[in-house]
Amino acid sequence: MNPQSPQPLPPQMPSYQQQSPMPPAHQPMTKQKKLIIGISFGVLALIVLVSIVLGIVQNNGKKHAPVSLIPGADSINLKSRDTERETDIKAMHGQIEAYWAQNGYYPTLANLNDFNFLNTNLKGLDLGALQDPLGNDSKIVNSPKENAYSYEVLPSGCDNVKTQCQSYTLTATLEGTLNGAGTYIKKSLNE
Questions:
Q1: Which of 9, 46, 81, 116 could form a disulfide with 133 if both were Cys (CB 3.0 to 4.6 A apart)?
Q2: Domain membership flag for residue 174
Q3: Helix, strand, coil share (%) of the chain residues, nearest 5
Q4: Average pLDDT per run of 10 along the chain, which is 191 residues long?
Q5: Is residue 57 a part of any domain in this protein?
Q6: Which has the closest alpha carbon to 108: 96, 95, 124?
Q7: Alpha helical stretches, state H, 64-172
Q8: Phi, psi at 81, each rounded to 5°
């Protein structure tokens, strides 16, 4: 080759538009694409909002939502709530028996629904244990019913002034069964 002769130019790369029909990333989005993305996010936000609202409506303000989209999860949740009920009743039972050991009688139903009494006399009791997993409040009732714990104290009408409470039955109504029963019961040790 002659040093004076021009060198051949390297082949030129085709422009971006020739390589791909897609626009380069550095170009601004068009109004149409922005609108599509905005609508997509709006629809997604609406789906999330509707799911939250439906969850609240189906849950009726209870502690745990009883509805699940995962197969078998309802059964697991049911067993979990029944286990929580059993644990709550055992916790109350232990504290009530400790009260008996100190006082020689059991608290009244009104006592168990009085937070001042509980904070003074049953200090070891987690107040969350008073509320059924699907209950709306922590009020203990006098006879078994769904979504509430019951405390039946005897003799009937005992007030620990004229008549001391000598025995009780704590009951949780289960969603499933435990040892073939639809309730979990703990009785006073002093019977």
A1: 81
A2: yes
A3: 40, 15, 45
A4: 60 54 62 82 80 57 48 72 95 96 96 96 93 93 95 94 96 85 92 73
A5: no
A6: 96
A7: 73-103, 109-112, 115-121
A8: -65, -40
